[in-house]
Amino acid sequence: MKITSKYIKNKNWGTKASYGVDVYMIHPRDTSHNIYNPKFSAYLLQSAVKSDTFQFYLAGEDESFYRTKKVYLEKEKKGLYWMRMKEVEGLPRKLKTLGPLPREKWYLFKRLKDHWSFYVFVDKEGVFHVYPVLPI
After folding, report:
1. Which of 1, 16, 66, 132 makes the best surface tag, with the fewest CB within 10 Å?
2. What is the pTM of this model?
3. Cα(9)–Cα(71) distance, rounded to whole angstroms?
């Protein structure tokens, strides 16, 4: 399983371990959630608050979705689309790409592998720092 600024690669897609991905922007409750802090622990992010306005999930138009092993964030892939939830008007919106994730923000990626959560910090250079975490 790999998450980069360009793509998500997941050999587990289409198995009992994973059927897609959910992406949320999260807001840490305190400033100690800084990856440059020597006392940083990704497990502390489990108490972070999920965004009500930045919530996406990956969906497919047919069974080819379950054979997909790599999805690009900024490139279209036939038969796949992203659904943006909680739009202002209340209806989900279908998108061809997720696009670049805003920088200097935390994200939570779920449903990629069993019960794992993947916390991702996008730094000011656009580099993804990925922290896999099992629930405690």
Report:
1. 16
2. 0.87
3. 6
Residue 62 buriedness (CB in 10 A; 0-12 / 13-18 / 19+): exposed
pLDDT in tens, 28-55: 877 667 888 888 888 888 888 888 778 8
Token look-up 């405690």 returns 136
**Residue 90 lies in domain:** 2-33+42-133
Q: Running along the chain, 136 residues long, what does each successive block of 10 average in pLDDT?
A: 92 72 86 79 83 81 75 88 74 86 92 88 95 84
Tokens in use for 124? 């000011």
**How many domains does the chain divide into?**
1
Q: How many CB atoms lie within 10 A of CB 67?
A: 10
Kindly state the tokens that stand for 19.
């059927």
Q: Which residues contact 122 (CB under 8 A, 6 or more apart)?
A: 5, 101, 102, 103, 104, 105, 107, 128, 129
